[in-house]
Amino acid sequence: MKRIGVVFGGTSSEYEVSLKSTVAVLKALESLPYEVMMIGITKEGNWLWYQESVSLIENDTWFLEASCVPLSFDFTGQGFVNKATNQGVLVDIVFPVLHGGDGENGAIQGLFEMMNLAFVGCGVSASSISMNKMLLHEFAKTVGVKSTPSLLINTKKITKEVEIFINEAGFPLFVKPNEAGSSKGISKVESEAELEKALEEAFKFDSKVILQKEVVGIEIGCSVLGNEDLTVGACDQVNLAQGFFDYEEKYNLITAGIQVPSIIDITLQQEIKEQAQRLYKALGCSGLARIDFFLTTDNQILLNEINTMPGFTDHSRYPMMMKEIGLSFEQIIEALIKLGVERHGAKLSKASESN
């Protein structure tokens, strides 16, 4: 029986989102033939082997348990090290249920690569490019995927470059941290008078910020599963009664509704799916990703962002899109584990061939 190390928590601003996703993943794993090891990362960055009830993860008191064992890392492909006994703690594959920050920007993936461990999800380069909004948009252009007009800035000052962009794009604008997920730090700006406050907020989450022209249209999501052979879920669409799809809307759906499947024209859905797969393969994504687009009022398809570890409760967008094509939550989890093992096996084979 394979042993799965489910990693949760983390130091990013999406710590709470990770806990919600993790509870759903752990409950799904109860019906699958795997031994589960729960590995929590505190907000301070401490790695702990957690061995108690899932309910304590749900209410975020898990790290208070005296039974938590501090962990360090083994770099020989075995897994982790119990810091109290200095003994190895073996795992066959790691499932990092981590959102935003180091969980999605390639850092944690790089650690697992150095540890020579199989893991679920995209590798270092696909994760890091996808997390960097401006870099992702520039990359997308090289494979014929259009994105929204944006400007990358690293200062709160209204520079000449910013003024030129505002004159060309007009208001309203969106101000976004370049590397942050779940719409953290994003503001909609209606005038230059509001820009200073929006920049202040965005710079709390990143040292680089993008200004982005507002797109009049709807957001369409596309879920992709696989390494080489891809499975694409049904498209969904975000229906907003007001405002924009910010953090509160994403997780509480106060005025927004998620429609699965989308009701846009089938031809447009097929084009979105084709662009999603093209970008997924070009980036070298593996395991999974949710790729979000804007569809403008004149039917232009523009890339918004890629989530390489999207929200993972059983009612999150990614699982719901896959459910629409007949894949249960448990089937998705099992497929992701197998894909992670497969990817790691292919990596080891290439390494042995080159020696």
Summed up, what is this model?
It is built from 12 helices and 18 strands. By secondary structure, the protein is α+β, with helices and mostly antiparallel strands.
Task: Describe what you observe in this structure.
The chain is built from twelve helices and 18 strands. The chain is 35% helix and 26% strand. By secondary structure, the protein is an alpha+beta fold. It has an eight-stranded mixed beta sheet, sandwiched between helices. Strands 13, 14, 15, 16, 17 and 18 form a six-stranded antiparallel beta sheet that branches. The chain has a four-stranded antiparallel beta sheet with strand order 9-12-10-11. It folds into three domains: 3-119, Rossmann fold (3-Layer(aba) Sandwich); 128-147 and 215-342, 2-Layer Sandwich (D-amino Acid Aminotransferase, Chain A, domain 1), CATH 3.30.470; 150-213, ATP-grasp fold, A domain (Dna Ligase, domain 1). It has helices at 15-29, 55-58, 101-104, 107-114, 124-131, 133-142, 160-169, 195-202, 247-252, 266-283, 317-323, 329-354, and strands spanning 3-9, 35-41, 47-50, 69-73, 79-82, 87-90, 93-96, 118-119, 150-153, 173-177, 187-189, 209-213, 217-226, 230-232, 236-239, 257-259, 287-296, 301-307. The model is unreliable at 245-252 (pLDDT under 50). Pathway: Cell wall biogenesis; peptidoglycan biosynthesis.
Can you give keywords for this protein?
3 domains; Dna Ligase, domain 1; metal ion binding; single chain; alpha+beta; magnesium; Rossmann fold; D-amino Acid Aminotransferase, Chain A, domain 1; 355 residues; six-stranded antiparallel beta sheet; eight-stranded mixed beta sheet
